[in-house]
Amino acid sequence: MKTTIPSQKPLLASLADRLLEAQRELDELAVQYALGKAEARDAFAGLKIALRAQYRLLKSRLAGTTWTEELAALQARFEALEKMLQRTPEKTDAPAWRAAEERLAALQELVSQRLREAPGAAEFLHEMEKLKLRMELLRLKLALKKIIVQEDVRAGIQRAVKKTSTTLKNLNQRIAR
Prior knowledge:
The structure is a single chain. With 177 residues, the protein is mainly α. The protein has one domain (5-176). It contains four helices and no strands. Helix 1 (5-62) runs antiparallel to helix 2, helix 2 (68-85) packs antiparallel against helix 3 (95-114) and helix 3 (95-114) packs antiparallel against helix 4 (121-176).
């Protein structure tokens, strides 16, 4: 038994090294995912800023015109949308994304139905459509990043399991001798 103990140490050290390597890979993937989420948060913040700018532009064009009743309805819907957008959705399947898209569509519908002839309404609708497309693109990018990281994690775990099982097999063979 004493003769096998010295030969087990290099195998155990090898096993520990492989487990540490697998842990480093998993940590790196976690960092990549966190960076993707931060990137999505920043992009989403940019979308909110663009939305506010477009709203302020439309509001300034409608100020002092005969569109005051429509402007009040627009204000209420915009505030509801903005309140919802305060929470940045980080999950691609989150109800927050769908709810934000629905509120955006409701705002767009209000402008297209009640403010169709108002000055600046066409530009606002065009910008809203661009905003919806950018939101969808952002959601899809986040989903793709999540899939890539999940696949990398799975592959890393499979490599670690394979290396560990090979090392354990070698260790068992040496013990059996």
